[in-house]
């Protein structure tokens, strides 16, 4: 088909799997009635059961933090309790982007405005003014309005179809903001650290494809990473609609995202004794998006279950991880690059405190940018300079308060000054560095880690600290400013390499540096691999700063009894050297507590938030060698199905967020070896049992292999007459080491190829879940064995290949093209244009491409292809041509063509019926029932 973002079969499960978060289960409502106040949903249009939209701890916390002024509080809460309007983006890389925008502007918006002027109670639909080029829209309709109003019903149908096809993406309005501040260009290497379910990754990809001609690829790439393998599948599902060869999906803990760099002196930089200058010798990024896991209270309007779950421990418990992820992001960012830190939480401990700690650790090497002049129409509030930390029902204004008792998981960096006032020898200071997510608790310090029974602990100092960092440059979007969810965004620029020396390396462990000091450093964002040989090589260069050459050589002495450690030295007893320290645990650790199982469950089920236990378990299993398989997702994690009607109004959710991961397993299709087929009988040898797959050191993950089977590549090139200038060599990849029997062949851009080569040289550090664009797929049906080429062009690969194909391609008149979309299979003799039928019969048996002829030109032998060309993959059978496109794709394309025709800028579709149109056999491509034409076993081959 002719463009990125065309319909793909992978969207087939969206409708059946959306979770209606405002519709509660019986057990939910019973539980809430017992535990929490419930209020009637304030939206009069909706008939929902009462849902708990109150949480006293939430009120108390945010009133005290001063997120909004006391005068605004009621308005803030009122909007927070209302369902969220539906927002969606037009995919700018879709071939029909302009058509869709103009349909919204000129048809739906005007019709609805006219109806509103006539006194109808219809709410408007309109573009989000702060989003460039009218590409993002918001609407707010109830089901009742939908049923009563014809224009709305038509609009609903339009949204459903275009979403299914991939021409629009449902995404919460505020979630569209962070990528806009990244300022991405087509040549950028972009890392999306916590990327699933991928709505922002999709936007980033659109940005690197901006102004790139179809058939060309940008020189940049996006690496989208997520720790949760199931969520990675959602991401793959979501981003497949981009049909991109410039994406790698990885599955790592973001805070430990691997480094990949080649030492210039390493032997592997040589090939056949000749020094090779690799295109990419270090995996660093121009842009990093750090959309971290968070407590998610900014999504209360679309996930009202958070009202019930919310507690202060959620934010406190994530602060440490958020800092670590932010630091890792900055260490992977190129000098001169930009990183956006964002959360869908309103909590300053997850937001300003994290940004301040990052700035503190990075010193002057990182700057918090003032972006107030960017996106001026977006209403946002400046970041806070002061806030408090809450724990065990107490308000703490500084870490000074912490030393007086034993709070769980409270660390200095959560406070505005970030200062640790506690002396080394002090017995009560705490840290969460040794804690895992599971240790964090609910802020009530229960479950095994009791606070010490110390009367002093009840006194605290409420002197307010104020941050010295320019945190007002951060942005907080609050719901009642422009009827959205809430979001927090900070834009950081890396000015110089991060410093590599941290206070804990010194005997006192003290950080003498003032908040605003620019030269202190940390290696928290670095992995072992970055640290280098002490000569600050490998990307962490010493600053070229004369000041850096002066140091204070006053010796520090530790106050701890370190003489109790032992060092064994070689010449004492003719041995090697060793160091030993023996530690005893005298009482519960001050900063660690267990989280109740019920809370763990709650956290795990929250949409975007909280790195869940499941993810950690999956990761461990993976490392330990069990096979990862989305089919392992249990019922508990699978959201309920929702009806089509839920697409509209407040239930309209970000598409991928509510997609059932277990139902899109085919997104991350396991690359089983294609069993050899007996040419005579068509039967396959072998039982098809899937072996444990290994990708380098990653067990349970399909390998990534450069496809170098020249016999297959040549057969494909010859069959489709693919232009020699098209770079195949080194750009084809499979997920199967048995290259004779691969099922799918993927295409990767030059940038992805370079990263892949670097990754191989570095021993496959990256755990790759998905890579490149599915370009060719083996047809395994018996009839297909008669075709000279076993591989068909996949619909994702078609836009890129289209300008390069010289054989098996035909131009159809508008009427024949329309008939193909309508009837799916047409016999050669039944085409209105007899010449087309004649030419079709002369094609080789197998896959072919049919292009819609422009204007009323007569057909040419080789169709002229450009950005506006519309094409579909077909199959030339013995007596007919069948489309290899799903029914919904056909429907949408017919719709687009008729809208173009109405506007007078489309082909003239003559309304002549074909004289005879009947397929020899029932068409397998009837997507509503068979769903997936892409994997069809070609029963209709004539
Ligand atoms: C806020 S969501 C990201 C939303 C995403 N950026 C989008 O726009 O669709 C946070 C994601 O972080 C992931 N996550 C949690 N802990 C992580 C970690 N340590 N490393 C990487 N990803 C993590 C979660 O699985 C979740 O998908």
Automatic annotation (TrEMBL):
Residues 1-15 have a biased composition (Basic residues). Pfam families: Methyltr_RsmB-F (PF01189), Pre-PUA_NSUN2 (PF25376), PUA_NSUN2 (PF25378). S-adenosyl-L-methionine binds at residues 194-200, 226, 291. Residues 76-495 form the SAM-dependent MTase RsmB/NOP-type domain. Residues 16-29 have a biased composition (Basic and acidic residues). InterPro entries: MeTrfase_RsmB-F_NOP2_cat (IPR049560), MeTrfase_RsmB-F_NOP2_dom (IPR001678), Pre-PUA_NSUN2 (IPR057285), PUA_NSUN2 (IPR057286), RCMT (IPR023267), RCMT_NCL1 (IPR023270), RsmB/NOL1/NOP2-like_CS (IPR018314), SAM-dependent_MTases_sf (IPR029063). GO terms for molecular function: tRNA (cytidine-5-)-methyltransferase activity; tRNA binding. Residues 36-45 have a biased composition (Low complexity). GO terms for cellular component: nucleus. Residues 1-54, 429-458, 524-547, 620-644, 656-690, 908-942 are annotated as: Disordered. The active site is at residue 344. One of its GO terms (biological process) is tRNA methylation. Keywords: Methyltransferase, Nucleus, RNA-binding, S-adenosyl-L-methionine, Transferase, tRNA processing, tRNA-binding. Belongs to the class I-like SAM-binding methyltransferase superfamily. RsmB/NOP family. PANTHER family: NCL1 YEAST -RELATED NOL1/NOP2/FMU SUN DOMAIN-CONTAINING, RNA CYTOSINE-C(5)-METHYLTRANSFERASE NSUN2-RELATED. This is tRNA (Cytosine(34)-C(5))-methyltransferase. The lineage of its organism: Eukaryota, Viridiplantae, Streptophyta, Embryophyta, Tracheophyta.
């Amino acid at each position: 088909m002719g463009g990125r973002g065309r319909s793909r079969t992978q969207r087939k499960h969206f409708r059946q799997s959306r979770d209606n978060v405002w519709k509660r289960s019986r057990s939910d409502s019973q539980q809430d009635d017992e535990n929490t106040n419930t209020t009637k949903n304030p939206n009069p249009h909706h008939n929902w059961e009462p849902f708990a939209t109150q949480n006293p701890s939430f009120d108390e916390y945010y009133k005290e933090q001063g997120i909004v002024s006391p005068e605004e509080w009621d308005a803030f809460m009122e909007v927070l309790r209302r369902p969220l309007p539906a927002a969606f983006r037009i995919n700018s890389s879709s071939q029909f982007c302009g058509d869709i925008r103009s349909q919204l502007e000129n048809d739906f918006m005007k019709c609805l405005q006219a109806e509103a002027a006539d006194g109808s109670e219809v709410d408007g639909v309109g573009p989000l003014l702060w989003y460039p080029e009218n590409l993002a829209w918001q609407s707010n309709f109830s089901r009742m309005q939908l049923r009563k109003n014809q224009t709305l019903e038509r609009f609903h149908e339009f949204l459903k179809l275009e979403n299914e096809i991939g021409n629009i993406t449902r995404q919460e309005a505020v979630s569209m903001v962070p990528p806009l501040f990244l300022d991405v260009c087509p040549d950028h290497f972009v890392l999306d650290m916590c990327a699933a379910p991928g709505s922002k990754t999709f936007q980033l990809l659109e940005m690197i494809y901006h102004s790139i001609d179809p058939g060309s690829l940008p020189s940049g790439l996006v690496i989208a990473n997520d720790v949760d393998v199931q969520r990675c599948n959602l991401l793959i599902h979501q981003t497949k609609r981009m049909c991109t060869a410039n994406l790698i999906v990885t599955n790592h803990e973001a805070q430990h995202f691997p480094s990949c760099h080649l030492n210039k002196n390493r032997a592997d930089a040589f090939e056949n004794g000749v020094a090779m200058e690799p295109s990419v010798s270090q995996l660093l990024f121009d842009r990093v998006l750090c959309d971290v896991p968070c407590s998610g209270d900014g999504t209360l309007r679309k996930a009202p279950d958070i009202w019930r779950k919310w507690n202060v421990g959620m934010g406190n418990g994530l602060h440490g991880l958020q800092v670590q992820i932010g630091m890792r992001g900055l260490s992977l960012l190129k000098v001169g690059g930009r990183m956006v830190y964002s959360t869908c939480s309103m909590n300053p401990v997850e937001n300003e405190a994290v940004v301040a700690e990052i700035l503190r650790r990075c010193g002057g090497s990182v700057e918090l940018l003032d972006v107030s002049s960017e996106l001026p129409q977006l209403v946002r509030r400046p970041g806070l300079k002061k806030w408090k930390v809450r724990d065990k029902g107490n308000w703490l204004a500084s870490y000074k308060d912490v030393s007086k008792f034993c709070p769980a998981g409270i660390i200095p960096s959560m406070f505005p000054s970030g200062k640790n006032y506690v002396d080394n020898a002090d017995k009560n200071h705490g840290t969460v560095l040794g804690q895992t997510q599971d240790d964090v608790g609910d802020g009530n310090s229960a479950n095994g880690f009791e606070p010490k029974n110390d009367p002093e602990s009840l006194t605290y100092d409420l002197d307010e600290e104020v941050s010295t960092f320019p945190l007002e440059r951060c942005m907080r979007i609050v719901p009642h400013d422009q009827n959205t969810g809430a979001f927090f965004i900070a834009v950081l620029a890396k000015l110089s390499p991060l410093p590599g020396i941290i206070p804990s390396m010194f005997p006192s462990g003290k950080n003498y540096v003032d908040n605003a000091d620019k030269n202190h450093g940390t290696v928290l964002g670095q992995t072992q691999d970055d640290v280098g040989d002490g000569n600050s090589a490998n990307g962490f260069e010493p600053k070229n700063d004369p000041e850096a050459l002066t140091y204070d050589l006053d010796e520090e002495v530790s106050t701890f009894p370190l003489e109790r450690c032992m060092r064994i030295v070689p010449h004492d007893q003719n041995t090697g050297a060793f160091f030993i320290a023996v530690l005893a645990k005298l009482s519960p650790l001050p900063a660690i507590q267990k989280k109740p199982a019920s809370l763990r469950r709650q956290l795990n089920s929250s949409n975007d938030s909280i790195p869940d236990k499941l993810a950690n378990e999956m990761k461990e299993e993976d490392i330990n060698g069990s096979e990862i398989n989305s089919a392992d997702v249990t019922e508990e994690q699978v959201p309920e199905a929702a009806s089509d009607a839920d697409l509209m109004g407040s239930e309209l959710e970000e598409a991928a967020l509510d997609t059932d991961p277990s139902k899109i397993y085919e997104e991350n299709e396991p690359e089983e070896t294609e069993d050899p087929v007996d040419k005579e009988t068509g039967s396959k040898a072998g039982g098809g049992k899937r072996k444990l797959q290994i990708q380098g050191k990653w067990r349970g993950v399909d390998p990534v292999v450069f496809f170098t089977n020249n016999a297959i590549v040549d057969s494909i090139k010859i069959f489709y007459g693919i232009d020699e200038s098209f770079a195949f060599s080194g750009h084809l990849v499979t997920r199967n080491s048995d290259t004779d029997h691969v099922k799918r062949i993927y295409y990767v851009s030059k940038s992805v190829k370079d990263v892949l080569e670097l990754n191989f040289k570095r021993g496959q550090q990256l755990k790759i879940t998905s890579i490149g664009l599915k370009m060719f797929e083996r047809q395994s049906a018996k009839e297909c064995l008669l075709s000279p080429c076993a591989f068909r062009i996949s619909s994702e690969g078609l836009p890129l290949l289209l300008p390069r194909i010289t054989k098996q391609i035909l131009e159809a008149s508008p009427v024949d093209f329309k008939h193909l979309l309508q009837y799916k299979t047409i016999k050669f003799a039944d085409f209105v244009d007899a010449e087309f039928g004649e030419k079709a019969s002369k094609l080789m048996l197998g896959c072919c491409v049919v292009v819609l002829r422009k204007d009323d030109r007569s057909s040419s032998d080789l169709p002229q292809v450009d950005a506006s060309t519309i094409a579909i993959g077909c199959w030339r059978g013995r007596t007919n041509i069948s489309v290899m496109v799903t029914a919904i794709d056909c429907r949408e394309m017919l719709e687009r063509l008729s809208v173009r025709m109405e506007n007078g800028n489309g082909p003239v579709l003559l309304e002549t019926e074909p004289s005879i149109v009947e397929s020899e056999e029932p068409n397998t491509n009837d997507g509503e029932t068979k769903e997936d034409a892409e994997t069809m076993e070609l029963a209709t081959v004539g």
